[in-house]
Amino acid sequence: MNHHLSSRPTASSILGLACVTVLGALSAGCAPPVIQKPGTGNTTDSTEPLDGRGLFEYRVKSELVGSCSCHGAGVSGFDAFLKTGSEYESVTAYRGGMMVPSSADQSPLLTKGAHAGPALTPDQHSIVKGWLDVEAVERGQGGSSPTTPAVPFIVGDYYISLRQLTNDPLARITFSMELVSGRTFRLTKLALTAGPSGGVKIKHPRLVYITAGGAALEPSDALSTIDLTAEAGKTVQIGAGAILLPNVPASSSLVAFVFEVIQIVNPMPVSVACKAVNLFTPPVSTTLATCASLCHSSVGTRAEASRALRAFPMDAALKTDQTGLANLCVDALGRINVTTPASSILVQYVQPTSLGGMASHPFKLDDTTTFNNFKAAVGTWAAAEK
Fold first, then answer.
1. For residue 151, what are the β-bridge partners?
2. Average pLDDT in the 347-353 region?
3. What pLDDT shows up at residue 8?
4. d(Cα 378, Cα 286) in Å, to the nearest integer?
């Protein structure tokens, strides 16, 4: 694909019930998950979602449904672009995406003004525009690719999949995030990795800051001269391998990458597959089902679900389809270190904080026995994939 140019529950309390509960809900045809706002329900279990879909569900939907109710109730003479129960899907797909153009200011949601229904209030206008700005950058605008999955400004190690931009399940950007002082961060060990099925070329990668107020390009454009290729199965450093990011937005914010060019080069006739799916499922995938039930699936119940789903989709862990589980195994493959499995992102992200787990991932397997069993299962699987 070539592009030119979103109190923690403990594992001990949910691990045994999550898969049964979610699988039962799926078979019964449950309603879309409710995304809670901080201040409602368990405030320690929810952080504000800042990806496009999350912003819509969290901030925008109630405003539009309240002001534009005629467009969701099937009122004669009004287009139903806010269909009840599928508001996000209908408003973003309406007439080929005319409501979510590459320039937010051109959206009829902002330009319509008073008609048979009321105009948006100034506050509503600001909320809707912030969401539209994020949608535009996520989808690709101004000659740039769509964004990669976004990550928070929290100290830790990060794995950003490039699958959605390259169709390579193992293509990725990795880095560590350090806090320098105040709202100044540094990205280090910045690298690009290609899977075995072809090289990955990137040109002019750029960071994008995403907040509830919209999206903005990182002003220094420190990677403007980057034009490099990671050959199939190889990892290369991006530029100097480090970027200083001063004056990161003080509010809750995320960061993602966009590219002038990102494409597969020199494709290889290689089929990417796990060697030992039987050691991945069920020993590893059963625990991933818990992650899926909370965040990493279309039925995730936490506020971060839509962003987590984009970062690492795990719907297959909630099902019994063997093809889906084999594909999930491949997606997880890039997140393990076959030489030192305990250092794998897949393990580090869920490692209890008391054992050195990273704060950059909100969910932990807080029960030590459960975590150790998962780590052992990953180790056995990784050894077979080596």
1. 255
2. 93
3. 34
4. 12
pLDDT, average across residues 136-140: 92
- Here the tokens at position 159 are 């794995």
Please, is 216 exposed, middle or buried when counting C-beta atoms within 10 Å of its C-beta (0-12, 13-18, 19+)?
Answer: middle
State the average pLDDT over residues 248-252. Answer: 80
Per-residue pLDDT band for 136 (boundaries 50, 70, 90) equals very high
Q: Across the chain, what does the average pLDDT equal? A: 85
Mean pLDDT of 371-384: 97
Contact 130, 214 (CB under 8 A): yes
What six digits make up the tokens of 259?
């590219």
CB 385 within 8 A of CB 275: yes
State the Cα–Cα distance between residues 192 and 260, nearest whole angstrom: 15
pLDDT tens track for 30-84: 233 332 333 333 222 335 688 889 899 989 999 998 888 788 766 777 888 888 8
